[in-house]
Request: fold
Amino acid sequence: MAYDPRATTGIPTEPVGSIPRPQKLQQAFADFDAKKITKAQLEQAQDAAVADTIKRFEATGSPIITDCEQRVSSFATYPIADTLAGARLAPNLAPGGQYFAIFADGHNRQLPKITGGPFRYNFYAGELVKKAVTMTKKPLHQAVIAPSMMYLLYPLDGDLPGYSRKQFEDDIVNECEKDIRSCFDAGAAHVVVDFTEGRLASRNDPRNPWTTRNLLPHFIDLDNRVFDRFAAGERKNIGVHVCPGGDVDSVHSADVPYEELLKLLFKLNAGYFQMQMASERDRESAYKLVGKYLRDDAKGVAQMAYIGCIVTQSPRPESAQEVCDQLVAAAKYIDKQRLGSTDDCGFSPFSIDQKPNYGSPDYARDIAFQKITNRVTGTKMAAEKLGVH
Reply:
């Protein structure tokens, strides 16, 4: 039976992706990199974390769940490395690429670099779905990475000898399509393409040269090459996530005016968009922008807007009433029949994250499930108040 996002809550609601990995799992990742444990022992810790995650996610009442990236290095590097330290790096990649992002607290996340062609993933997200479907009867959501993120593996200027930029772009588009299809083939109901580099592309930070190259229009074109390979009925179930970052409870581009992204974002021919909003300084203006630019017809699909109602960097659980109030406020500018709710970002997009604002990853994990429970309840309340069924 096809997944109906409105069946449980009236207004659709779904997660972005990650939940903090337990401290025990984070230590297992570190011990594996230090060669203190085997891959089998790491997988044992991952299996335990996924089992606990799915059980607790089901208890939130969420109509759709995910394994919350417990098995992967990060939202960005899962196809190309087993761990953040670069274990089992994909072929033709080497350490020491450019920074994906420099965060507000000063820390950075660095990508590998491509050394030649062809570019191929080591791992496809459908493998995560295959394992998760055996553990739940709930519909499953799976996040994947955009080709625009993989674009940052290639040198900013010139072509690599024997492997042109065009060849590389063809490869990253092909691999992303394969990744998405692997998820649907494994049983995922929704697949969301992470596009956190979208807002960062207008950052213009000289410390991070790619952000000074006005790459956002090219990113839109590149990612649309993937979306345009799917029929309208398929794209209805493919989303895009955007936010100003979320790592170690810090962000990378919250100071970039949201309009710089939103005026182009909906040119992507995706079916729906998960957008950070709860932590936005001027939510009302952002809601207006979404209402202005959201497309009625994206090559056969009326786009949906899933509004972030949960601040993932904060340990304070939003009440269900706060979630309800945000959705009602958004409905002043966005058609209530095309409105959904989500979290601002993944709660812990990288596998090792001590969650400084929370005090510990285990406490952050508890709070994340509480926040999700309140999001689900608050979404139902908003649906009732707005008369959405």
Q: What stands out?
A: The chain has a mean pLDDT of 97. The two ends are 19 Å apart (CA to CA). The chain has one domain: 23-386. The first helix runs from residue 23 to 33.
